[in-house]
Fold these 2 entries.
Entry 1:
Amino acid sequence: MIREALVVSAILFSIGVLGVLTRRNALILFMCVELMLNAVNLSFIALSRLHGVTGQVFVLFVMTVAAAEAAVGLAIVISVFRHYRTLDLSRIRLLRG
Amino acid sequence: MSISPAASQLVWLVPVLPFAGFVANGLLSLVPAWRGPLTETVSSRRRALVSAIAVGVLLGSLALTLWLTQAVSGVDSVVTASLGEWIAAGGFHVDWMLRVDRLSVLMMLVITGVGSLIHVYSIGYMADDAGFARYFAYLNLFVGFMLMLVMGANLPVLFIGWEGVGLASYLLIGFWFGDRANAVAGKKAFVVNRIGDFGIMMAMFILFANLGTLDFAEIAREHNSLGAPPATLICLFLFLGCAGKSAQLPLYVWLPDAMAGPTPVSALIHAATMVTAGIYLIVRNAVLFSSAPAACLVIVLIGALTALWGATVGLKQWDIKKVLAYSTVSQLGYMFIAVGAGAYTAGMFHLVSHAFFKALLFLGAGAVIHSMHHALHEAAQTDDAQDLRNMGGLIRTMPATGVLMWIATLAIAGVPPLAGFFSKDAILSAVAERAISSPLAEASLGPIPGRIVLWFAYGAAVLTAFLTAVYMTRLMRYAFHGNYRAGPVAEDAMRDSPWILRGPLIVLGSLTLVGGWLQLPEVIPIGRTGLLDAWLAPVSASASALLAGSGHLAHSTEYLLIGVAVAVALAGILTAFLLLKPGSLVRKAEAPADTGIGLVLANDYYVDAAIERGVVGPMVAGARKVLWRGLDLGLINGVLVQGSGQLLRVLAGLASRLQGGSAGGYAWAIALGAVVLVGMFTLRGAQ
């Protein structure tokens, strides 16, 4: 069982990474980050079978942080959209050296 | 070597007293109420205090010197005193060591004796000057350093005095610094002397590297372990220093300009004492010099050339002080001929007698300038108070000064029985004696045999004696005889100088009259002969013998030499009387310009212009084009300062490319980094 769960987790994480790297829309990027977090959550749960409940406790933490992150991130995304009228990250590059 | 304990405990006071006077008068000159505007004269009460301090410390030093003279009068008596350690660096030790022997005490007597007279004279000469206290502070400072120079027991202490007198000389030449020319003259003296100081320092380095000591007594003891090349090199470097301080070719150029200072300063520093420091240095190291005959021949040659040079230029100078300045250059050349030829006693003898008569001449000239200045001022004329063409007939208003200056003139011309006759004759006969037969004549200077150099020096000295008689008689006739040329109004305003100016003149005149008895030659036994020879024997006799050999001149030859010297002097005076026409002179403002050879001589062979073109010009151009534009602006400012900034800008520009601002780029970077890190850890875990 653990094996399958870890494989699913790895696939989910890779999809997330790929999404972050290739997509330009900030909202989708955001969802991909959530996907990666949840892939990690899945592997925490799976491995808690072997190493005790610490992993499950960590999942609760991750979900809390993810919720907070979602709140802050979405607020940023909204204000970015209001300012630029777009969420295309390749056009938002004010902070360049 | 016996050491007198009481003397060695008090010997430090000799130089310290004038330094104390310097501090006291220096502080007084800084008190605001005493300074006043530059045009204001100092009140008589303040003047009295300043002069009491200045003259008092000098008289104190003079008294101590007289007492020390008695303390070192025993054969081989030397008073030494260490005032503490100065430098202790590994094997190199230098103490603040003073050493009084018969040679230094002779110098100290001249410095404090003539110095006291000139201090007294200055009270009158500088009475109207706003910088009265400052003047005496500098004068005391000079005497302090000069005493240190002659009392130092090792080269570094001597060098401190050497530099100190240079400083005092600089300060006093530029005493009236409000006039730019005076300040420039002071600077010139200082800079030219630096060249000489380089020589002294090189000599010290080589001496230390070879002997490990700079103490005079130890150098004299151990100089035999030096090879001939280092000894010659050391002597030549020392002589370079002497040439700077004692105004020899080619470093004499500062001395004529040094006449910008007050006249008593010219008398004390630039005639009687400081410029003779070079002679003293050579006699002090007589043993070292006598072991390097080639260097001695160089000294003889340079001395002879300088004597001739100064005498010829002196022929056509119009400024009364310039005549005396070139005369000093020429007489110093005489002294170097003597010490170069190993006739150390003769050199010191001429130093002492020259101090008497040249100080007398300068102080007399000062009295003349003082009176001329007042007369021209009263007549509201702007004529030059120092120009011979504006004078004439002064013997009528200043008879005492005129007579005393005639005595000094006859002395410097070499008329018996004045001091200058004996000292000059001592040099001439010593050079002739060595030219006829001596180890020095057998030595050679490169391809030139010593005999030729010595005969050349003898010829130059005789010719110089003739020229000296001519230019001095010219000075006296133009200044003191004939008609007064600066106009009747000024003539009516001419007054004799006050007694305080005449008093020191009378003392110096007496010394000029009897100074010859210091060292009477054996062939003229009108008193005890060879006193100075006996006095200096412990210091220089053995060194002298090394160069002179033991041969003595036959009496007939000596009489012949004396006859030649006297005949030449009288011929010079006669020539001046026959050839010069004071009646045809007109005052400076209306005088025609010099022409032909006279113009060349009046401009000192255009040496200053040549130095300006050949040395100063290229140096300034080099400093401007290479050092300033090239090195400073180009390399340091352009490449190093601006360049390092530019380099950082370029590097930062490259680095800032990393911050492209696109979130995607960052994400890729992070992802790749993560892959690399994870990969590395995985691979390491697999091992």
Entry 2:
Amino acid sequence: MTSRDAILQRIGKGLANAAAAGSAGLAPPPVSEVWPCDHASHGARSDPQALAQRFADELAAVHGQTIRSGTMSEARRQLAELLDTAGWPTLGALDRPLVREVTAELPAGRLAWIQPDAQARSIAELPAGLLTAECLLADTGTCVIACPTAAERLMCYLPPACVVVARREQLVEHLPAAWAELSKRCTDPQASGELVLVTGPSRTSDIEKVLILGVHGPMRLVVLLVG
Amino acid sequence: MRIDNQDHLCGAPFLKDKTQGLYEPSPEFASLGRATEYSSKHNRAITDAIPWFQDWRAAAHQIKRYAVANLDKLLAQFEANISARGATVLWAEDAAEANRHVLAIARQHNVYRVVKAKSMLTEEMELNRVLEEAGIRPVETDLGEYIVQLAGQRPVHIVTPALHMSAEDVGRLFAEKLGEPFSAEHAHLTATARRHLREEYLRAEMGISGCNFAVASSGTLVQVENEGNAGLSTATPPVHVALIGIEKVLPRIDDLPLFLNLLGRSGTGQKLTTYTHLIHGPAPGRKLYIIFLDNGRSNVLADPAAWQALYCIRCGACLNVCPVYRRVGGWAYGWVYPGPIGAALTPHLVGLEQAGTLPFASSLCGACGEVCPVKIDLPHQLVHLRHRATSEPSPMNSRLERLTWGLWAWAMGGPRRYGLTMWAVRWGVRMSRFLPWHPGKLGAWTRGRELPRVPARSFRAWWRKRGGDGGLSESLPSPLAGEGQGVRGNHA
């Protein structure tokens, strides 16, 4: 008998004994509504400006930064300014339509396109990485990022700074509001890699509970919100 | 305390190795007490701000109950779903078998360097020792775990493993072990760890992690963290091995938002942790191995009253509020899981014969049960285990224990027997101060506590003299009048 069979058999036997004692064979409990409709933020859903402001406030609370751009051309200008002020000579970028759009006016030498087979060491040497989000969660200041390949996963963690670009239409109230879409991705039989929820830069309080940013992953997280 | 082998691990030497923590304030545990008090107040404020937090707890409890009641089906469902995406699922009945699986994978992929994200399950397995003996270098990457690994210690807390060490301690450790200039600056120490660990991620051939939730309906492996070390450990090396306790399964992907909300808030006082990884399967060109470990968990199932011990999501909230844990720290619990959940879980995993004293390591104040995000009734779990420990083979059911309680029952069985016993106790206490040392458990007790001064006259004698009503109509001299300070116990 394999260990798998032995374990499952032992579990089955234990549960059968429990059933005899009336403790097994339960019906599935209803899925819990995490944020009931009377949540204080409920009204914000209909007000995009308020939602964007809440996202920026929540991200700031976890030491992230939001740059809001009214138009794509403004976003391009703000991205170039960010590179200059931060002193990043180049920006590593994943090839996505939105990334192409927002970097359209960057000089070619300031952009490094990361291929799916890129080596970890080369990604680690980038001063910053540019990613796109599947959606943003206002209630927690979270970026939801799909990373089907290893290089995409590494772009979230290895460069010392992380820039995430997203359109305002991708902003939703909170995790449950995004869940219908995210759960579809999780149940997709073709899915690979990971879906990562990033809420601020890397942090630790492991020494005397003192908060320090950038212990392993990015020290800086900037969200470029377009629209 | 360095624990070197599995036999000693299973000893659960509670109230032995670190007994001094109970009465001698130790600097290392003083900082632990402060930190846990801060965490519990901070996290409580976060959870209290949610009006429906109690509803979340109740819902999570029901979901975990359903998960345990259907554990075999859900495990098989998770296995089928994640295998379909290219992951390899292995099963281990005990720690030794899980270690063999890890070593076999390491040999298959020519692994000599491993980076590890924090996993309590690998502490159960003593995996670091096993890897080192096989010539493989394991490096813990969670900052707290890295610190305790360098110090040759075990974690004192399941969420913040180096909570007992000050910045000065860490600075001295880094100077000694890493050859770095001494610093007690938090930012400098963190940057030092970052610099050393960066190279470890890039050179490792294998990453090992635990798992917070294994979602059956979708085959999703969920990890939560703040540092980014779990992301780096699982994404940088070409091989990822995830070790999962069989109780970590959640039935449906739609249950996940609830548990993510609960874990972040109760564990670290965050709405969501910095990184939540929902791993579907291996990325193209990478390998993902899942190892399910039983290690005694399935034994719990036949006792439905104990199921709740398997509901734990390892947030550490019960440790932070526990007055016993705050005083003695994590090592005193003798095995991997400290605090109230350790006292409730360890006896199931290693057996009452070895850990039968742990359920008694509680004042049953109930604080742990109040904060548990999945509403585990920890005080009653402990009472249930106490009952079992006194009726099944365990140190609490020894001949000496039975004899002691038998004598107690006899002494309490009638007024004459009670009077005779109290007379003997009074004389014993009076005489004890003249003894140069006290034997056994009495000696351990009196090393740090004062025996009470015996009054000249007993309450019963006083009561009799007062005519049986205590002379309540008269002005009452205190029966304890003349009692001063107790005498210091002997220090043998």
